[in-house]
Amino acid sequence: MRTSRSRERRAPEARDGTHAASPGRAPEVLVLLCSVAAALTAVAQPVVLGRTLDLMLRDGADDAGRWLALSAGLLLGELLLDSLTALFTGGCNAAWTASVRSRALTGLLGAVPDRVRPFPPGDVGTRLTLNAADAGGAPAARAALAASLVTPLGALVALAFVDVWVAACVCAGLPALALVLRAFARDTGASVAAYQRTQARIASGLLEALEGTATIGAAGTGDRERARVLAPLAELAAQGRDMWALHGRALGRSGVLVPLLILVATGVGGLRLASGELSVGELLAAGRYAQLTAGVGGAASLLGAIVRGREARKRTLELERLPALSQGTDHLPPDGTGELELRGVRVVRDGREVLRADHVRVPGGSTVAVVGRSGAGKSVLAAVAGRLIDPDEGLVLLDGVRLDRLTREALRTEVAFAFERPALGEGTVAEAVASGARRASPEEVRRAARAAGADGFVRRLPDGYDTPLPGAPLSGGEHQRLGLARAFAQAGRLLVMDDATSSLDTATEHEVNLALRRSVRPGTRLVIAHRPSVAARADLVLWLEEGSVRAVGTHHDLWRTEEYRAVFGAAGSGAAAVPVGSARRPGPEPASQPGAKPGSKPGSELASEPTAESASESASESAFDPAPEPEEARP
């Protein structure tokens, strides 16, 4: 049965459940109104100025005073309206850019993690910065373009009232200008899209190089990396030249047509003046109106901004519309112990099955180590178990309730994650540990930090728990311990630890594991394990091999299988050597796992030499275990 519940988001929502802010149409309408008013003022000026000139030539300056004042008022009004248009345009661009970025970021953060991976960080950064700015400028550009069409149309109507023959001459050249603009809009779209994609490629390569500066410096491959990052630069330059060439051709063609139209209109107007059909003022107005009508060619710049904004909006919409997990309406039973069950779970990526788990039951309150070689599907299992992703087939249940039917609050309050590289934000240390589905109290924060082995170094920070994270000198292990502390503070019925102790030394890791049993809220723990000591301290081990569950059992029992020992690089020529700490601990019995392969035959020989890792772990165990291991667990 299909259980994928990912859907395409129609209206992105912020993490607090509210819709991402949208400025609406008000800023765009303000730009449009001011632009149209300025355009109408510009259209009115020639006729008023022409009338003023006729009165001054005919009756003298005294009778023309009123019209001269009106002409001056129109000029000042146009200047004021142009200033207001610029002000409102800036506000509109800022509001829409912020909205586009907010929506795209909301879609990105709320998306199914697997659907985000095809977008490199540099590409995402380009979409959220350059592309969002271009997209945010499109509404104001649309309003300005609409207003820019008012001027030539109004001027053409006014010109027809002044002299119909001059208006006819101007109309004859307008189709040619329209064709120029149409060709510009058509050709610019593809060029702009290619340019934006190349920008994203350069940004992605640069970010990769910045993240690997230490490796690049150590390997001495700086020149090669610089060449790799800048390789698309030649392509970007060619695309930029194409864009400018298109723009230049449009302006050049309109630059030829516009003076030609004005020249023809002026010539016809001069003939009409000579025949007595036009006055001097009317000729002045006709020439100005012809210039304003032919000014439709100046719309090329606005049209280019709209095309750039449209292509940029397509790129931000890809982030905004990333599929997100739907949420149900059910709640968990109040007396549940955190029993996790996977029924017929199947996850497919690019046509390949990366996980298959059927009839796997994790008893409530137990600690289960998930082991397997690289690529065996451990992280996929962790993501499915905590519903970061939905399986393509099958069901995942927590205390008998399907995860895909839980409300978001119920899911994230009772299911917590700890990762190898936690994202802690930019607040204080205390805020980073306390943040989550529920707000941890200061005492809970400190208790969680002690359990994660972080309280000591946090107290040594300049302001202790109130130290801002950007200014805190943290090592990789300390950063990871703060992530563990946050997970411990948020721990509910199920805690999933996906490689969350990889940066810790063996002794610290052992302390964390002890605290996990004693100091953290009781519940089920699913731990991705790479060390045999971690698997040994778990109640059960879930062994993955090539995406399938090969066996479920205790580390002590599985260690007798040579293939299992090989997962930890401890395979020997004979049979199993059980490492220190691998004795079976009390805990719930596992459910049977169909298809599990039996271990090697009993009575086979022990490995003759322990590995360096097992020796180190033995020292750690003896230093921190409260009681010696049973005799049967010792090699």
Explain the overall architecture:
The strands form three sheets. The chain has a six-stranded mixed sheet, with helices on both faces. Residues 1-19, 573-578 and 580-635 have low confidence and may be disordered. The protein has helices at residues 26-58, 65-109, 113-116, 121-162, 164-211, 213-219, 222-230, 233-274, 280-294, 300-320, 378-385, 408-414, 429-434, 442-451, 455-459, 476-490, 506-518, 532-537, 555-558, 562-567, 612-624; strands at residues 6-8, 323-325, 340-349, 352-357, 360-362, 367-371, 393-398, 401-402, 415-419, 494-498, 524-528, 540-545, 548-553. The two termini are 47 Å apart. With 635 residues, the protein is of the alpha/beta class. The protein is elongated. The relative contact order is 0.09. Helix 17 links the parallel strand 10 (494-498) and strand 11. Helix content is 57%, strand content 10%.
